[in-house]
Amino acid sequence: MGEEVAAAGAAGTRGIHLIGDSWAAGLHADPANALGQVAARAIGWPITVDAVSGTGYLNDAGAMTYLQRAEGASGTERLVILQGGSNDDDEDLGVLAAAVTATITALQRRFPQARVLVLGPGPDPAPVTARQWAVDALIAEAAQDTGVAWVSMLHERWIPAEHLDAVIDPANHHPTISGQQYLGLRLAAAIRLTEPDLLAS
User: Fold this and answer.
1) DSSP code of 111?
2) Which among 96, 100, 108, 128 is least surrounded, fewest beta carbons within 10 Å?
3) Tens-place pLDDT, residues 124-161
4) Within the chain, how many helices (H) and strands (E) appear?
5) What are the percentages of helix, strand and coil residues in the chain, rounded to 5?
6) How far apart are CA 28 and CA 21, in angstroms?
7) Where are the beta strands (DSSP E) in the chain?
């Protein structure tokens, strides 16, 4: 499957479709300049952002889960990004990996010409708890099992605890405007590292 997806991705439209939570929605910052938009501008691609605060792979926050939104989406973009997972902290972690797998599979079906990149949650809230680490690990497991690219903000220490206030507003536990800029540039760098042939084609 991986080779088929890779070949198809190169033929798709130079664009990104992102599904995420409040960090991707730019809550408490600038929704038009959240991490997805910043990353897209950095690599010179357009982006469609489907970000709903409070949602996750299992948590619908009174709206829809990532899977439900994935099943209703479609396009010819070359890259689909799944961002988040922190809102699933209080859900049944025994079914989280299956939900992530189902979401990835749905996106591969709905975006047949795209690669999928899974971006794990940040420290939301900080300090990172054992439960957050478990969520991160389960999402990583599902991404690896389905053969898609995986980036962990936590393991790669995108936001070191000693510099947390430079990125996160302590009053609302969300990235500031400058924090979103930083995270977006980190995401752009991650795309370049994980999908160099996709960008070059």
Assistant:
1) S
2) 128
3) 889 999 999 999 999 999 999 999 999 999 999 999 99
4) 8, 7
5) 50, 15, 35
6) 13
7) 13-20, 47-51, 77-83, 115-119, 149-151, 168-169, 174-175
Work out the pLDDT band at 10, boundaries 50, 70, 90.
low
Report the SS3 class of residue 93.
helix
Distance, in Å, from the CA atom of 136 to the CA atom of 85, rounded to the nearest integer, reads 7
Task: Report d(CA 82, CA 187) in Å as an integer.
Answer: 12
Radius of gyration of the chain (CA): 15
At residue 7, does pLDDT exceed 80?
Answer: no
- 39-98 tens-digit pLDDT: 999 999 999 999 999 999 999 999 999 999 999 999 999 999 999 999 999 999 999 999
- Which pLDDT does position 19 carry in this prediction? 98
The H or E element containing residue 107 is helix 96-110
Q: Which structural domains are found in the chain, ordered by start?
A: 2-200 (3.40.50.1110)
The first and second tokens of residue 187, run together, are: 């995401």
What global pTM score does this model have?
A: 0.93
Q: Which residue has the tokens 């500031």?
A: 176
Dihedral class, residue 134 (left if φ above 0, else alpha if ψ from -120 to 50, else beta): alpha
